[in-house]
Every structure is written in C-alpha cells, then in structure tokens.
Inverse folding.
C-alpha cells in the first residue's frame, strides 16, 4: 500500500470512529467537547516542530515556528480551560 | 532501536489516548479524567515528534512553545465562562492558521502532485477557518455588530472569489515554484473566510462556531496529508467529526438546513405581521413570590439573557430556597439557548447547579404539564409557542420548550422588545403567562429575599 492510500484508509476509519464516539457525548458537555476539540486540533504542533527545527533559518523554518506557537496556544489553552470547565460539573450531593 | 519505529509506535499510543479520552467524555462523571487522558496523548505525540532526528535546531521550537504555551495558559485561566463562545471561536482560528502555516512550510520544489493538492487544501481550509473565526469572534464579543452584513452583488463577489480560488489552486499545483499563485490562494482563502461569515446573523452563531470547529480539524487533517503524518489525520478527523455532529444538532434544534443558515438569514422571511390575541399581564415580585411559595414543582428555563444579566448564581440560590420549601426544581435547556452548544450547562455548573438537575428539551417537555411554575429567564425564541402554532412564523417547526403547558409561566424580561431573532412571541400574551419586568438579576434577588425571610 502506498502512502496516499494508507493515509486515506486511516482517514476513513477515524472519521467513522469520531462520529460514533461523539454521538455519545451528552448535550450538557458540548461546550467542553468543543474546547477539548480546540486542544486536539493543536496536534498540528507535531508537524510544525519538524518544520521549525530544520536549522535552515529560511522562510519555512519561520513559518514552522509560527505554527508551533499558534498550535501551542491551542494545546495548552484548550486542555486547561476544558479541565477548568469540567471541574464545575458536579452530581447532586445527596 | 530504529527511531522511525519509535515515532510510529508513539503516534499509535497517542491516537489511542485521544480516542479513549473522547470516549470518556461520554459521561460527566468521567469527562475530566478523559480530558487528562487526551492531554497525555498530546504530550506523547509532541515528545515523540521532538525526538525526530531531522531536527537539528531546537531554538525556534522552544521559542514557539514558550510563547504559545504562556499565552494559552493565561487565557485559559482568566477567561470568564460567559465568554467561552468567543474563546472557542478564537481558538478555532488559531488551529486553522497553524495548519495554514504547516501546509505552506511543507512546500518544497520536489513535492508530488498529491502532496501539492493536500498543501493547497490545508492552506485553503486553514485560511477560511482563520478569518471566518476572527469575524465570528468579533460578532460574539460584540466588537463587530452582531447583525448580518449583506450587500448587493454579494453572491457575484463570492462566486468570483471561489472561481479565483479554483483557478489559483490549479495553477499552483501545475507550477508550484511560482509563488504568485501560492500567495493568491492564501489571500483569496482569507477573503473567502470573511465573506462566508459576515452574512450570518448573531442568532445563528452556535451553528457557525460548530462548523468552524469542524474546519479547524479538517485543516489539521489536510496538513497531515501534506506532511505524511498519520496522527494529524486521526486527531484532525476526530475534531472534524465532532464539529460536524454539533453543527447538525444545532441546525436540527433550529429546524433549519445548513445551507439555509449559511446562505439566508431570518430577515428575508420575518416581515410578516401576525395578529396576537390576548393581553400582557405583568406581575409584581410580591405576587410572584406567593405563587412560587405554593408551587410543588418548578421548571427554570434559562437563555442567553441570564448570562448577560450575570444571574446564574442568584438562580441557583432561588432553586435552593424552592427546594428547601419542598418543591422539585429542574432546569430545561434548549440546545441553542446561549451562543454555543452546551453554554447554559457550563454557566449553571459554574454556579454549582448539579448536572443531573439540567434536563434536555426532550426530557422536560413530556413532564411540563405537571409543572406548577415555569420560570423563563432571558430566553425568548427557544420558548416561543409560535414555532408550534403559527404556520407563517419564520421559526415554525423549530422544536421549543413548551413552557406554556405549565400551569403558570413567569417570564423575566427587561422590556417588551423582541428576541435576538426579532420575532414576536405569543407566549407573552397567553392566559397563564405573567410578565415579571425588570433586570433578571434584581427580580430574582427580590424573590430570593422574600423566600428566605
């Protein structure tokens, strides 16, 4: 299997899995779901670090560094704010 | 051991943790741990990526991470829960722009055609997400007007932009070394993001913010193809799927199709004036107190107005006092109450309302007939009976919380102005409706002090 086919295969499976899992998230958690999704979309950092670390000092490296910064805001901010929010959700005490 | 094997296995572990974390988000009891599991997955993925042997210079990476991480931490700690919609909108845009930059940086003179196509896609989706989210942020934070911006010839301009994008993208793929095409595509994608969001009115923001959430994931996915990285594809498609599902839920809750939300506003259909029979019956806080004191079951239906009045804490106090008085109190939450999916739930959770006291629309409607008093706080369209009764109403067919089925309805409202969508509400004229005019927080404060004395 070549690269493109393999990646498309992964895409198909994860889209289906995503639909199944997210349909089970109750409406009460939809805001944390979205901010958590913000955090996960910061996964771009993984690609950005390789581009920011080439040591070439060219445009691509600067672009990569910008992407690392933007994605880091999402990762750190997204997970922290989601945690803060989920900390509010409590069950009735009795 | 071979480093590429370590990288590959690391990404498998990270993907598994993302999936498991998402699964744990299926219940409020496990959600917080689920978020931590997902964060652990992110940590694994980033550490593995840093071990990549291709990296020779860590200064740019460290700089980016420190700057971004600090900003993220400060924002996450300081943001008010009422401002979550703006924050999510902004973060959608950041995610999109990160993918745009990665796609751009991944470009090399010897990229294969398939890679070039995915680079264009990540630039396009990322660019649209960036500017679209900034406009959404402006509207939600009311830095821009929340209304629709429509001008004559808008459709023509949009069509030209789309044609320009297609032409630019095609030329770029054919001749990737010519940066003019690349910059044209980036510029047009940024313009298109603005054009897509400006015609959408404030009441439709829950849909837009969900859709942009999805785009930010799809952009990451496209970037994953561009740099041949599977963990980006897994994580990106999970986010993409999440945003699409939320978009569907929001559209269904407004009884509108996605294309209707995107391409036409309420204004074009809401000019019809319908005669409403009955009269407005105001009530004083004193009289409201006597009715509440005798009630054995109370349903509270909040809307965005509750957040604007910062009334969620006094609502919780009222609910405590009513329960101490022997009444059963529940909250009915409409899916589009507030400005993003689940916004009301977070605001009430922050005010210590337990989540099992918050009922979804489908849970509360069947029991509304047994409710003695329904209290509507800062909600309008989501409790509008015109959606069931008036066929000519622009919201006809939209599922609403049927507060009019309760024995008595209190509507807390500042004045008689129409709601966010500008639609008349026959609920205010119903036989069993009483209007408690004034600032919601003050009105509730009066009820609380009467009940606690």
């Amino acid at each position: 299997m070549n690269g493109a086919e393999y990646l498309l295969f992964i895409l198909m499976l994860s889209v289906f899995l995503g639909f199944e899992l997210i349909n089970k998230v109750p409406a009460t958690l939809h805001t944390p779901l979205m901010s958590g999704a913000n955090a996960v979309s910061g996964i771009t950092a993984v690609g950005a670090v390789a581009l920011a670390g080439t040591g070439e000092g060219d445009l691509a490296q600067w672009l990569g560094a910008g992407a690392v910064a933007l994605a880091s805001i999402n990762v750190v901010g997204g997970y922290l704010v989601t945690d803060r929010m989920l900390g509010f959700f409590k069950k009735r005490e009795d | 051991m071979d480093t590429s094997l370590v990288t590959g296995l690391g990404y498998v572990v990270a993907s598994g943790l993302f999936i498991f974390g998402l699964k744990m988000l299926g219940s409020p009891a496990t959600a917080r741990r689920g978020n931590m599991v997902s964060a652990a997955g992110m940590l694994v993925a980033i550490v593995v990526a840093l071990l990549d042997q291709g990296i020779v210079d860590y200064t740019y990476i460290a700089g980016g991470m420190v700057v971004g991480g600090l900003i993220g931490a400060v924002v996450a700690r300081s943001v008010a829960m009422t401002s979550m919609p703006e924050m999510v909108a902004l973060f959608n845009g950041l995610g999109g722009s990160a993918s745009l930059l990665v796609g751009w940086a991944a470009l090399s003179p010897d990229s294969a055609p398939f890679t070039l196509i995915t680079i264009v896609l990540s630039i396009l989706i990322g660019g649209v997400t960036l500017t679209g989210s900034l406009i959404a942020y402006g509207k939600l934070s009311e830095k821009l007007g929340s209304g629709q911006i429509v001008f004559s010839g808008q459709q023509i301009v949009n069509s030209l932009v789309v044609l320009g994008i297609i032409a630019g993208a095609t030329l770029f793929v054919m001749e990737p070394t010519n940066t003019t095409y690349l910059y044209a595509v980036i510029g047009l994608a940024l313009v298109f993001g603005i054009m897509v969001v400006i015609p959408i009115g404030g009441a439709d923001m829950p849909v837009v913010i969900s859709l942009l959430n999805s785009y930010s994931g799809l952009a990451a996915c496209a970037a994953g193809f561009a740099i041949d990285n599977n963990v980006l594809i897994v994580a990106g498609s999970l986010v993409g799927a999440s945003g699409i599902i939320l978009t569907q839920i929001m559209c269904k809750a407004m009884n509108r199709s996605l294309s209707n939300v995107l391409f036409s506003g309420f204004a074009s259909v809401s000019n019809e004036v319908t005669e409403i029979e009955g009269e407005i019956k105001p009530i004083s806080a004193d009289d409201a107190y006597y009715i509440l004191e005798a009630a054995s079951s109370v349903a509270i239906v909040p809307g965005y107005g509750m957040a604007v009045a910062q009334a969620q804490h006094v609502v919780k106090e009222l609910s405590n006092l009513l329960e101490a008085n022997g009444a059963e109190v529940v909250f009915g939450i409409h899916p589009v109450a507030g400005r993003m999916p689940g916004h009301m739930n977070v605001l009430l959770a922050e005010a210590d309302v337990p989540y099992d006291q918050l009922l979804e629309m489908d849970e509360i409607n069947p029991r509304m007939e047994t409710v003695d008093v329904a209290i509507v706080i800062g909600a309008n369209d989501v409790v509008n009976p015109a959606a069931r009764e008036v066929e000519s109403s622009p919201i006809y067919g939209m599922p609403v919380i049927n507060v009019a089925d309760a024995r008595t309805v209190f509507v807390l409202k500042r004045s008689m102005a129409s709601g966010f969508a500008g639609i008349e509400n026959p609920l205010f004229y119903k036989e069993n409706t009483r209007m408690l005019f004034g600032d919601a927080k003050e009105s509730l404060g009066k009820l609380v002090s009467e009940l606690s004395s």
